[in-house]
Design brief:
four-stranded antiparallel beta sheet, about 45% helix, alpha+beta, two-stranded parallel sheet, about 20% strand
Length: about 240
């Protein structure tokens, strides 16, 4: 029996593993000047925090990037496939994605939320997005629903007749949901965030597609909980990746 088709307008991101702290940056940077004494020790205090922030700010400002690589975060992401194709433009992470060759893909499809901008005005490289009209919003929803339902019905018919999953999946559209693990370090993540979020105060504003920006927003929130000082300094320096 066919599964009921689900339409969603969200993406989800979970931090499933983290070996990332601000002090990872500090001991990696200090090894160049104090060698074995750079091994981190527990401590706090206002003066120590001020010194640590100063060093991270120096590294970020002058783009000494390698100390930000000595950490690792793994995210589990659920999003439509067209978002994953944008992720994989960033060849600075490790990816493992759900496979339509080895399992039947679930009938879960992305449909833009009513508040999602639909109209593009301007030329490539210099354009803006604006809300759609009520008629456009209704049209987009109706067309996506119709085509998604039709495509999944074709997929299901082929599977029912014994066609291999890797062949049957060819009819599925890019708005079907998939899932993947993404592993990267803080330096790579900052590069990703600088390109996939539009944030006021950025030295080099970027204009990402909204759906990958939704992922980036969640990833940044999770990262900032792990490395709050690094995240703060990243923003203070115009969101320029070191």
């Amino acid at each position: 029996m066919s599964e009921e088709i689900e339409f969603r307008s969200d993406v989800t991101v979970e931090l499933v593993r983290s070996q990332a702290q601000d002090r990872d940056v500090l001991f990696a940077a200090r090894v160049s000047t104090i060698g074995e004494q750079s091994i981190p020790v527990e401590g706090d205090g206002e003066e120590l925090q001020k010194r640590d922030r100063g060093l991270i700010n120096f590294l970020m400002r002058d783009r000494h990037g390698t100390p930000f690589e000595h950490n690792s975060m793994t995210f589990y992401v659920q999003a439509p496939i067209f978002v994953f194709r944008e992720f994989q433009r960033h060849r600075i992470a490790s990816y493992n994605e759900e496979s339509g060759r080895y399992r039947q893909l679930r009938p879960s499809f992305y449909i833009p939320a009513p508040e999602r901008n639909l109209r593009q005005e301007g030329r490539p490289g210099k354009y803006e997005f604006f809300p759609g009209t009520p008629e456009q919003t209704e049209l987009v929803a109706a067309e996506i629903r119709r085509e998604s339902e039709s495509a999944y019905a074709s997929y299901q018919r082929m599977l029912d007749e014994g066609v291999a999953r890797e062949v049957a999946r060819m009819v599925l559209p890019l708005n079907i949901y998939s899932s993947m693990y993404v592993t990267m370090n803080a330096r790579s993540l900052m590069n990703f965030l600088s390109l996939r979020r539009l944030v006021e105060g950025s030295a080099f504003p970027s204009f990402p597609q909204r759906e990958i920006e939704l992922c980036a927003e969640q990833m940044e929130t999770l990262w900032a909980e792990q490395m709050p000082l690094t995240a703060e300094v990243f923003n203070a320096n115009g969101r320029v990746a070191p």
